[in-house]
Amino acid sequence: MIFQYRSVIVATTCRILAPFLHLYSLYVIMHGHTSPGGGFQGGVIMGASFILLVISLGREEALRRMTQKANDFFSSLGVFIYGGIGLACLLLGANYLDYGVLPFPGATPVKARYLGMLVIEIGIGISVMAIMVSIFLNLLGPETSSEEADGIHR
Amino acid sequence: MKVFAFVASMLMGALLIYSTEDMPSWGDPNSPASRHVSPRYLERSVEETGTPNVVTSVLADYRGYDTLGETTVIFSAGMACILLLRRRRG
Questions:
Q1: Measured between beta carbons, which residues in chain B are less than 8 angstroms from residue A78?
Q2: B89 falls in which pLDDT band (50, 70, 90)?
Q3: Any chain B CB within 8 A of the CB of A149?
């Protein structure tokens, strides 16, 4: 994936396309309850949008949008949300991951289950997105200093 | 020794294939897997979880603990790639 020159058309088109990918991934996550989708699928689409930016803009510019430190933070945040919801249910007196007792404002136990599922789907989406980007960036390998000096970006 | 290992693994595979004849046939509605909890999940998903999509409700509510294990597997795969492949510059 070494390219000697930057193509303006490709870079601009991918930069225009990325927000629509984000929006579609959020749509897929939020509508996991009524249509095919859910956390894993939406997370993969969101990760694919960042990978598109890395492919088209080069590694340095894409990492300016989301740093590697933030990526590592997001990958653990998703699992933390999931486990945290389960622990919150445990602290409120019910079984682990029993969403019926969560104190969402003005919700019956059935609606609380619905909203609890939504929260953990969001957590799954965040974690899957971060892990996909992280594995991709690790498989790219390090950016050697000789390539950077030549102006070639991996 | 290698011949013995090869023969032993072939025998084991043959035994496993032979034992699949006793399993219920493909898509059997009277199998224990589709009589025990599946009708309950299909019939009472909407009234217990308010979710028309039964796949999501089974994955995130009835079997939420397995999905937690799945997310942990994804996380540990990412951690393994970071530990093995990440290098400093130069």
A1: 71, 75
A2: low
A3: no
